[in-house]
Specification:
The chain has helices at 3-7, 9-15, 25-40, 46-50, 53-64, 70-88, 153-164, 166-177, 192-200, 246-251, 320-331, 333-346, 357-383, 395-409, 419-429, 441-460; strands at residues 91-102, 110-111, 117-128, 135-144, 182-185, 205-208, 214-215, 218-219, 228-237, 258-272, 287-298, 308-313. The chain is an alpha+beta fold. The protein has three domains: 3-68 and 354-371, no CATH class; 76-231 and 262-294 and 305-346, Transposase Inhibitor Protein From Tn5, Chain A, domain 1 (Alpha-Beta Complex), CATH 3.90.350; 395-460. Strands 1, 2, 3, 4, 5, 6, 9, 10, 11 and 12 form a ten-stranded mixed beta sheet that branches. A hairpin with a 5-residue loop joins strand 2 (110-111) and strand 3 (117-128). The two termini are 25 Å apart.
């Protein structure tokens, strides 16, 4: 499958949604219609995206239908993602949880961390491990909701256990489908049982350490000063604004955009099972041999805290290149953060006027492949701007884009455009002005809407292969 087929409208609908088995051909046709409308009008409300009241009412009925499940909707996209993973070779499975917040007093939605109603989406995103960090698609989705009512101690513990176990469920699901994927997780996944289970089935992982765990040589943090220096590298760090809440500010301090000099150090550690986990003859105390990679910024900007990561992994770190791969793989976490931005701003998920949790979950499943599409277009334009984009669109789509760009923007798209030129042309259709800097997800979504609509019209008129669009 060519790059063009992957972001063509036919690929978006026919490949990313084709094969969804909803138990009724009418529901399956409706899914295709809704997915196409959402892809065309990513940032619009459902009333505007669907076009008329009849289509809108049918959409609401579809999303609220008990036979329609998010897992069934997402299954074809996951299958396409698995295929892209096979083609990519070495793959990272990057996990994160995002809060989905919805305005108003909507029933069936749970409480969020700081008031409001909504749910949490725990996502596993496949990303190429070849240095390009190409998003390949969604591998796993789980939604969680917390009850609104007051909790007693027993229910609070049960709720916390269920949320903690989402990491176990996610990595197990990914191992079943893509066993060679390297799982990349942040501090919340620093759980001994999780690391032990993954190591037992030889599933590879990188997790940022959050606990000062007991080791055979003392507390983990006490070992940091006695580590072998492997290499030094310079990476560009994005600016980060000051957080309003103290807890978040402590975990994610503000920083300026700057080139950071990072020192990489490494050593093997034997991590012991926490004391809180009871051991017995049937379940003896366990230990786990891992590699600790310590990343520390030297000479940070005045007044800023140095960047510091403590990474635990079962990957090999016998050479500077292998240690560098671990650090680069952890840095890939920013891709899933950008993916959630595409989902919320580019697809306007939190603005959808849906009342039930089930309807929101179904809308989420429809929106995820669209968010992946937006992210891929944007990333290629930024990360590989000079790469040829001729094969990224079908000939008819390229023909339509060239004509629309010339008519509406008085801009002549080159015969062999680069990825950056292609993305900026699409964003231009969405109203982006070059003086405003790099295009974001909203204008890319609007431009994609214009391009897909024109391509569909050209197809309906039988203009494929002609010199007109």
């Amino acid at each position: 499958m060519s790059e063009g087929e992957r972001i063509d409208r036919a690929a978006l609908v026919a490949r990313e949604f084709e094969g969804a088995r909803l138990g009724d051909a009418r529901l399956e046709r409706r899914l295709e219609q809704i997915a196409t409308a959402v892809a065309r009008r990513c940032d619009q409300s459902l009333p505007k995206a669907m076009g008329d009241s009849a289509a809108l009412e049918a959409t609401y009925r579809f999303l609220g239908n008990e036979r329609v499940k998010a897992e069934k909707i997402l299954r074809p996209h996951r299958a396409c993602t698995h295929q892209r993973c096979k083609e990519a070779g070495r793959v990272l499975a990057v996990f994160d949880t995002s809060e989905l917040r919805f305005a108003g007093d909507r029933g069936q939605l749970g409480r969020l961390q700081h008031d409001g109603r909504g749910m949490f989406a725990h996502v596993g995103l496949a990303v190429s491990a070849d240095g390009r960090r190409d998003p390949l698609g969604v591998l796993h989705l789980e939604t969680l909701s917390r009850p609104m009512e007051k909790r007693n101690r027993e229910s609070a513990v049960g709720e916390a256990d269920n949320e903690r176990l989402r990491w176990h469920r996610a990595v197990q699901a990914v191992y079943k489908d893509v066993p060679d994927a390297i799982c990349v997780m942040d501090r919340e996944a620093d759980v001994f049982d999780l690391a032990f289970e993954m190591s037992q089935r030889k599933q590879r992982f990188i997790v940022r350490a959050a606990q000062n765990r007991a080791t055979d040589e003392g507390p983990l943090w006490d070992l940091l000063d006695d580590m072998e220096h492997v290499s030094t590298r310079v990476v560009k760090l994005a600016a980060r604004a000051e957080r309003t809440r103290k807890a978040e500010s402590a975990r994610h301090p503000a920083r300026s955009e700057h080139a950071a000099t990072l020192e990489l150090r490494v050593r093997a550690v034997v991590v012991r099972q926490p004391r809180a986990i009871q051991s017995s003859k049937k379940n003896p105390a366990r230990s786990l041999t891992l590699n600790l990679v310590h990343v520390i910024e030297r000479d940070p900007p005045k007044g800023e805290k140095p960047v510091e990561w403590k990474l635990l992994t079962n990957l090999d770190v016998g050479s500077p290149e292998e240690v560098g791969f671990v650090v680069d793989s952890y840095c890939t976490r920013w891709v899933i953060e950008e993916f959630f931005k595409a989902l919320k701003s580019g697809c306007a998920l939190e603005k959808r006027q849906l009342e039930s949790a089930a309807a929101i979950q179904n809308m989420l499943a429809i929106s995820l492949p669209v968010a992946w599409l937006l992210l891929r277009i944007r990333n290629l334009s930024r990360d590989e701007p000079e790469r040829s984009a001729t094969a990224m669109l079908s000939p008819l789509m390229m023909q339509c884009l060239r004509t629309l760009s010339l008519k509406r923007r008085r801009y002549e798209l080159p015969r062999d455009p680069t990825c950056k030129e292609l993305a900026w042309a699409i964003a231009g259709l969405g109203g982006h002005i070059k003086n405003n800097g790099e295009p974001g997800f909203i204008v890319l979504g609007r431009g994609l809407d214009e391009l897909l609509t024109a391509t569909q019209l050209a197809t309906d008129l039988g203009l494929a292969g002609s010199d007109q669009s």
